[in-house]
Amino acid sequence: MVSVGETIYVIGGRLCHKEMTHVSDVLADWVDVEVEILTTVMKYNARTEQWSACASLGTPRSDFACARGFRPAEAYDPVLDEWSPLPDMNTMRYKSVGVTWQGKIHVVSGFAERLNSDRTFPFITERSSAEVFDPRTGTWELMVRMWQLDVPPNLIVAVDGKLFSSGDCLKAWKGHIEAYDAELNMWNEVENSCHRELSQPAKRLFLTVAPIGTNLYFLRGYRFSGEPPPIVSMACKFDTSATTRDAWTSFEPVVEAAEKELCSHCCVVKLL
């Protein structure tokens, strides 16, 4: 999901339905079945509140790719409503994180493999690297060690010329926020960014981040114990420009009437 002007584009994704599956003698859980990776693209005009269909992708995509990942990239022209192929990336990737920074598109980390290798497991070097696309030259460049962990990030956002992250795809919230130091090519903990999650028993269903101004807005969903188990959405923000310990602000939680699931990370639309 991405925003361009006053329009939100929902690109590709997975189509499936959920089925209750027996896990153990005392546990059952919902699992995705009949999964289909889509080529469809829908757009939503935030001003007119209307949905419409766009030209389809050339290749089905979900989480930047599917299966064991691949290299092909595509670009969309919203004026012409058409997709055109871009040069292939250097490595096959999936579960990557994309962010536009310093005028270039960064596809960071992900489970990656070399196309010409007979090895069946991903290379750590590629997992910790990034593919950087320069629209001016139309070329990809491999940037090594941009992500320091073997596990891909959950999300990376750009605020005021800086990159921020708060977790990886296995642990979406580490308990603090990290900022990228481009000169040292490393991630450092942001001062006063430590923030505890709920102390009472609850299962986090999702966590995503939306950058607005100098603030990072964290949107979280929890399932609490009970019958039926209540679903609660919570929001808080962190001011990246703050120099004191009161950089965090929490908002009133909302009890949801039905189950919610994160289908994509947030995007921001500004209506003028």
Automatic annotation (TrEMBL):
User: Out of the domains of life, which is the source?
Assistant: Eukaryota
Stored PANTHER family: F-BOX_KELCH-REPEAT PROTEIN (PTHR47365:SF1), PLANT PROTEIN, PUTATIVE-RELATED (PTHR47365)
Which protein are we looking at? Uncharacterized protein
